Amino acid sequence: MIDSKPQTPDLTTRLGSLTLKNPLIAASGVFGYGLELAEFCPPAQLGAVICKGISLEPWPGNPGPRAVEAAGGLVNAIGLENMGVEAFLRQALPPLKATQAVVGANVIGHELADYARLARILADSPVDFLELNISCPNLAQGGLSFGSDPDLAARLTEAAVNPAGPKPVWVKLPPLVTDIALLAKKVANAGAAAISLINTVPALVINARTQRAVLGNLTGGLSGPPIKPLALRQTFLCAQAVKTPIVGMGGILRAEDVVEFILAGATATQIATAILVDPRSPLTILTDLRTWLTREKVVSLASLRGALKGANNP
Ligand SMILES: Cc1cc2nc3c(=O)[nH]c(=O)nc-3n(C[C@H](O)[C@H](O)[C@H](O)COP(=O)(O)O)c2cc1C
């Protein structure tokens, strides 16, 4: 008898030397240090979890209010508050690794040397990979972000790749740069194992009645559904420009959003704001993704990678 049962879609995702059980990754900044939401979303069921940005010393973050809904999304200015790398390695990482989750450390600093030192420290830790957040202000250049200068971003990548030893180093790109494909090429040539994008989009929310900015930091970063078309476009341009795997994010709420990023050329995806709306959302998206692929008779997600067609092409 012929078995007519539909094949279970293969969601295994290879990103260089890393193999993830599925392409859904909890993005940095919304999943704490990986265990805060474990009751709703066990970290080991995801492809990976990326911890909130880690600096050499603890950072206090910005004054409140730190987040506000706007334009169908969220604008936040948390200010990268974190416990510092020493406390991360001592307190936060061991219980998270004990869950068998694949763990990425999002790395933040104010100078190239900070990234190099953090990479050296994390090289000897149980984290599975590093993700450099290059949207941080570079104090040596008057606070301009590292990501706004492709050559500087390449130097920063190089500075982290060697000391990181065998750990893959991902580089997370900001959304608004003159030439995102050039930035992707520069960090890929400098040794990035994957390129993740996009970080939040610079934004300002104003209360007309009080004539004041709503956030304590004045400006913040927009995330969620309003940034998805921009994120898809930047993902597409980067995937066209480099062979390095792309990890796309920005406004993913549903399984179809994940498929759209894969069609644009991403190998995996990250989810941030949706987790703040519903911490179970990555698992819902995972179930819906399996259902969607089965219904569309797609046996592996990888077969859709970069398969985007123009509106009028056959
Ligand atoms: C509250 C909040 C905190 C964030 N913190 C970080 C962070 O520490 N490091 C980082 O690289 N990105 C951080 N991000 C950016 C997200 O990881 C992600 O790039 C962005 O929100 C776009 O994805 P989304 O539309 O799914 O939210 C943060 C986002 C939010 C909403």
Describe this structure in words.
The protein has 314 residues and is α/β, with parallel strands linked by helices. The model has no long low-confidence stretch (mean pLDDT 95). The chain is globular and about 55 Å long. It has helices at residues 85-97, 112-123, 150-161, 180-189, 228-241, 255-264, 273-277, 281-295, and strands at residues 13-15, 18-20, 24-26, 48-54, 67-70, 73-76, 103-107, 129-133, 169-172, 194-197, 201-204, 206-207, 212-213, 219-223, 246-248, 268-271. The strands form 4 sheets. An 8-stranded parallel barrel has the order 3-4-7-8-9-10-15-16, surrounded by 7 helices. Strands 5-6-14-11 form a 4-stranded antiparallel β-sheet, with no helix packed on it. It has a single domain (13-64, 81-199, 222-304), classed as Aldolase class I (TIM Barrel, Alpha-Beta Barrel), CATH 3.20.20. Bound molecules: flavin mononucleotide. Flavin mononucleotide (FMN) binds at residues 27-30, 52-53, 67, 74, 76, 78, 80, 106, 133, 172, 199-200, 223-224, 227, 249-252, 271-274.
